Amino acid sequence: MRITPRTPEVRVPKLVGLMAVDAREAAEAHGVLLAAPDRPDFHRTVVDYVVRQYPPPGVEIPRGAVVTVWFDLGEGEGGGGAGVREPRVPGPPGGGVRRELDEPRDPFVGVPY
To answer: 65, 63, 56, 44: which is closest to 15 by C-alpha?
Structure first.
């Protein structure tokens, strides 16, 4: 456990990616408090991972200030899981020679016999 010197301000630790129990220990070691609005039972949460935090890591805040952490991604933040991967229509343009050259014309169209 890292002990920070008694200064009026501390730097926010990086908590994203840590399990709840580790995030609590890191916050305590850095002299900040944690709040988790999406986990009312945060003090008992152990293995959920922090996916977002505010304020961001490295910001100086007063000792004892609250850092908010979230364990679930919010609406529109990509928490949809693996899902089904279907090709989008229309597909990307073809590459290679077809893209660089025009399609060949029929040499006999429009030629008198």
So the answer is: 56
Angle at CA of residue 45, ends 42 and 46, nearest 5°: 145
Radius of gyration of the chain (CA): 28
pLDDT at 2 over 70: no
Q: With bands split at pLDDT 50, 70 and 90, how would you rate the model's confidence at 28?
A: very high
- pTM given for the model: 0.60
47 and 79 Cβ atoms separated by less than 8 Å: no
Contact 67, 36 (CB under 8 A): no
As beta bridge partners, residue 11 has: 60
| Residues in contact with 47: Cβ distance below 8 Å, sequence separation at least 6, in sequence order | 19, 20, 21
Among residues 78, 26, 34, 25, the alpha carbon closest in space to that of 53 is found at 34
Q: How many angstroms separate the Cα of 75 from the Cα of each of 22, 72, 79, 109?
A: 26, 9, 8, 58
